[in-house]
Design goal:
about 220 residues; mainly alpha; globular
Length: about 220
């Protein structure tokens, strides 16, 4: 089996697992979700290893935490804090990786780029703030971290408008909106279509980030 065949098969495997997981959420089949959601990051890791020539150790570590984050969030509110902590670590790792790609930039430009993400954060908080209870601090901390994630991805793309940086920006944006829907689902109102949307956005987001990191890993050898 040549390398190109391995790449195609790994992508196909991830597509199948992702589609089944979305279907499981759509039909509210918790048993199917319990089986396939943990396999999302396992199959995406196979996609990563099949395509990258120089793996990023930190990125691989992030998949370990994403795996457990997915598992915890299957149980929704009862394990929400564990899912939040694991995905907080994931975003911190992503931020660390992306900062490594950045060149020095003016503070004023960075501050300007924080504006849209700050406004989005405040808009979400407006709706969910009164329902946070003892989750207020972790949710605010998480919101700040994912806003920083968005800022560094946008800055990375503006500094160098390569396709892999666009993939990172798309992935981070979809990831942020997926997290927003998780917040609304847990602290504002639970709607079935929101659950379908958030898992779909999450899967696509992780795929785009993976594609970007494959390209980054291969470009580093040039």
């Amino acid at each position: 089996m040549n390398n190109q065949t391995k790449i195609i098969l790994s992508h196909l495997l991830f597509l199948i697992v992702g589609a089944i997981d979305v279907y499981a959420v759509f039909v509210s089949n918790r048993s199917l979700e319990l089986i396939f959601k943990p396999f999302l990051m396992i199959t995406l890791l196979i996609v990563y290893f099949s395509g990258v020539n120089k793996p990023n150790t930190w990125f691989i570590v992030s998949y370990f935490f994403s795996f457990w984050g997915n598992v915890f969030l299957i149980y929704e509110k009862s394990h929400l804090i564990y899912g939040l902590v694991t995905f907080l670590i994931v975003h911190l790792i992503y931020i660390k990786i992306i900062i490594g790609f950045l060149k020095k930039d003016s503070i004023s430009r960075v501050l300007v780029l924080t504006i849209p993400f700050s406004l989005l954060f405040l808009a979400v908080m407006y709706f969910i703030f009164n329902n946070l209870g003892n989750m207020m601090f972790p949710v605010i901390l998480y919101g700040v971290v994912i806003a920083i994630f968005g800022v560094v991805c946008l800055l990375n793309y503006l500094q160098e408008s390569k396709v892999e940086n666009l993939w990172l920006l798309i992935g981070s944006t979809l990831f942020i909106f997926s997290n927003i829907f998780v917040g609304f689902d847990n602290f504002y109102g639970s709607y079935h279509f929101v659950n379908i949307l958030l898992i779909t956005l999450y899967i696509i987001a992780q795929y785009f980030i993976c594609k970007a990191m494959i390209a980054k890993g291969n470009n580093s050898l040039l």
